[in-house]
Write a structure and sequence with these properties.
MetI-like fold; mainly alpha; 315 residues; 2 domains
Length: 315
């Protein structure tokens, strides 16, 4: 087991190393020039060239990549070209806002999805099962921007129960912040709930066709005990994987939600950085999202091996 976990960790590190040049290269091909963005399009060419030299943009790409990667290894994300501030300082508050939004959504959506999936599996083929399945499929089909607009229209415009835009203050209480973040949390919950519910249902139903489940049925074991104590533990591997993917999405894929609600998170910061051609800031945000995605998938992979005896013994 120790060798297997170390092997997975080594693969994760290699993956992050491979991702780094891709992130750097993808930002390098962005159209526009940060020097022109700072000085304006009417600036003389020699002034723009001097600004590019001052910002270090005239150096070869491989030199800038090496400097950027060396800084990442020691925790130095560099300096924002647009504002001149340390990127670590710019990211700290925004990262906390995104993590807070993702954590609250995960605490709500993960247990709810598992419960709905188990209920649907226990009542397979019934009206309740069909209702849950059809409902989740409908939610999957609705784009996030439309869901956000619909929730704002219903709960903020028509009913006036919730604020249309989140208002965050340092002195806010937990209940006040929850009320302020209700609509973004609902939008993200709908975005990830359906996938986890369907995967939980399908994974449990697949396990129910096993021989030991049939033996338990012949012995007269109640259906709920078979689902909760026999089928669910053996269906954890795919469920853990889909939960990890959705948790990674909550941190790295919230661009639409943060933009729709003008939420001051990391994804919104990256969108603003793209608009101003602030390449180092875009690269830092991209690497944070990539590392989060790789680490959560790595964590899910290890948990799947630990929770599944067949996988654990085959390693």
């Amino acid at each position: 087991m120790t060798y297997t976990i170390l092997h997975r960790l080594a693969l994760g590190l290699v993956t992050m190393w491979v991702v780094s040049p891709l992130v750097f290269a993808s930002t390098e091909i962005l159209p526009g020039d940060v020097a022109e963005s700072i000085l304006g399009k009417e600036a003389p060419a020699e002034v723009v060239a001097a600004m590019r030299e001052r910002l270090g943009l005239d150096r070869p790409a491989y030199v800038r990549y090496w400097d950027w990667l060396s800084g990442l290894l020691v925790g130095d994300l560099g300096v924002s070209l647009a504002s001149g501030r340390e990127i670590t300082e710019l990211i700290s508050d925004r990262l906390w806002n995104t993590v807070r939004l993702a954590a609250i959504t995960a605490v709500i959506s993960v247990p709810l999805a598992v419960i709905l999936g188990l209920v649907s599996a226990m009542k397979a083929g019934t009206l309740l099962d069909r209702t849950i399945s059809i409902g989740t499929l409908c939610v999957i089909s609705v784009p996030e921007f439309f869901m956000a607009a619909l929730l704002v229209f219903v709960f903020a415009v028509q009913l006036r129960w919730l604020p249309a835009m989140p208002i965050l203050r340092p002195d806010q209480s937990f209940l006040s912040s929850m009320w302020s973040l209700a609509l973004p949390i609902l939008t993200l919950t709908f975005a990830v709930l359906a996938h986890m519910t369907l995967m939980t249902r399908n994974a449990v139903i697949n396990v129910l066709s096993s021989a030991y489940i049939e033996m338990a049925l012949l012995k007269g074991v109640p259906n709920y005990r078979i689902i909760l104590f026999h089928a669910f533990p053996n269906a954890l591997s795919p469920i853990i994987n889909v939960i990890a993917l959705n948790l990674a999405y909550l941190v790295a894929g919230v661009v639409i939600v943060e933009t729709a609600f003008s939420y001051p998170g990391l994804a919104r910061l990256m969108v603003d950085a793209v608009a101003t051609r602030d390449i180092p800031l875009v690269q830092a945000c991209g690497m944070i999202f990539s590392v989060t995605y790789v680490m959560l998938n790595l964590f899910a992979d290890i948990l799947s091996i630990v929770s599944n005896p067949r996988l654990r013994l085959s390693q």
